[in-house]
Design a protein that fits this description.
Layout: H1 3-19, E1 35-41, E2 48-53, E3 60-66, E4 74-80, E5 85-88, E6 96-104, E7 108-110, E8 114-117, E9 127-129, E10 132-134, E11 137-140, H2 147-155, H3 161-167, E12 181-184
Antiparallel strand pairs: 1-2, 2-5, 3-4, 3-6, 6-7, 6-8, 9-10, 11-12
Length: 185
């Protein structure tokens, strides 16, 4: 087992113990995994819609996703048991994401991984104002957003929140207002 597997497996297990404490990760899970997972761009910018064939009815579904194959930084553990599709929103437009859906019932069995580029505006521009390069991307702050959550969404690294703060002249990165439109450098 490589050092990456030793590091990632406990983190993956920790992620699931936090988001779904009643669900265990097990190689011997008897719940059938969702079949034929597919992904298409959603109807709005920053969206991907997933579709799958449900197995025998699980208790609920679990979604994991990230910007690198087999490295999942985000998730949702509360997809209803009668679902066979799910739209992921607030993704970084024009960024490739990797997804797995799991059927959960005391354990989780995951589908095969699929990938899709989130819907976005194909015309990227770049400018440099006050030494900060902008890609022309923006993000409207949602209730519950923080600069670290936004940085994780756009860069895959929550520690890059200062980059967004600097680009937007934010003095205190702990205070952002819902509805504000931020430039994403």
């Amino acid at each position: 087992m490589s050092w990456k597997a030793i590091l990632v497996l406990p983190l993956f297990s920790l992620f699931f113990s936090i988001i779904s404490p009643s669900v265990a990760l097990s190689a011997n899970c008897s719940v059938p995994a969702p079949l034929n997972l597919s992904a298409q761009q959603g109807s709005e910018n920053g969206q991907v819609t997933l579709n799958w064939n449900p197995p025998a009815v699980p208790h609920h579904y679990v979604l994991v996703y990230g910007t690198e194959s087999n490295k999942y930084s985000f998730g949702d553990n509360n997809i209803p048991k009668n679902a066979s599709s799910y739209t992921v929103s607030h993704l970084n437009p024009e960024t490739k994401y990797f997804f797995k859906v799991g059927a959960a019932q005391n354990c989780v069995s995951f589908s095969s991984e699929v990938s899709q580029i989130a819907k976005g505006n194909s015309s990227k521009t770049s400018s440099n104002v006050l030494g900060v390069t902008s890609t022309g991307k923006t993000h409207t702050v949602l209730p519950g957003d923080s600069l670290s959550k936004i940085a994780a969404r756009f860069y895959g690294n929550m520690m890059l929140f200062n980059k967004i703060a600097q680009a937007n002249g934010i003095q205190n990165p702990n205070i952002i207002n819902a509805g504000a439109v931020l430039n994403i450098p």
